[in-house]
Specification:
Outer Surface Protein A, domain 3; 2 domains; 5-stranded antiparallel beta sheet; 3-stranded antiparallel beta sheet; disordered N terminus
Length: 188
């Protein structure tokens, strides 16, 4: 007769905190701060988080597949937050107008991009922007910049989705606003 016991040990990861970045763990959240910039991430209850000297330590009790997945995701979120506070994430979008000239306006009061004359439409298309993202429009190029990769990426996706062509043949109507550069890769 064999008795099987779970002798597996948990996982442990350490992430170095760069100079000038303050990290706090409170109320099931981790807060990263550098000068005026601040990023807050919600923590997963599967992982135990702690601060030791100049490191963020992630520990689990078991090393099952679920714990490995969650550990990898949390490690990536923390590394992105630390990288974003050192150097902002940048996205570039390109306006493609084949049929009608498109005009872009950034309304700072409502924090929206207004697309005028898209496919000759009389009504303007309005795209809400995520707060915390700096935007600059230079003719047909939109540049987004943020310390938080999730906010910058969501804003870029909202702009691309808001200029989607519907009920027309995409082979002919190739108008729209498309992501041409993401952090770490370029599509052109």
């Amino acid at each position: 007769m064999h008795i099987f016991t779970n002798m597996e040990k948990g996982l442990r990861e350490e992430i170095e905190i760069p100079q000038g970045i303050n990290v706090k763990i409170e109320n099931n959240k981790i807060i990263f701060e550098k000068s005026n910039d601040k990023i807050v991430r919600k923590l997963n209850s599967i992982i135990d988080f702690s601060l030791e000297e100049n490191k963020i330590v992630l520990k689990t009790k078991k090393s099952s597949r679920t714990e490995k997945r969650v550990m990898g995701s949390m490690k990536a979120h923390i590394k992105n937050a630390l990288a974003g506070l050192n150097e902002k994430f940048k996205y570039k979008l390109q306006v493609a107008s084949v049929h009608f000239p498109i005009t872009l306006i950034h309304d700072k009061q409502t924090n929206e991009i207004i697309i005028k004359n898209f496919l000759g439409e009389k009504k303007d298309r309005r795209i809400k922007l995520v707060p915390g993202v700096n935007i600059s429009i230079n003719k047909d190029i939109i540049e987004l910049e943020s310390v938080d990769i999730e906010k910058a990426g969501q804003t870029a996706a909202n702009i691309e989705k808001g200029s989607k062509v519907r009920n027309r043949d995409r082979r002919i109507f190739q108008d729209g606003i498309f992501i041409t550069e993401k952090p770490g890769r370029s599509f052109l």
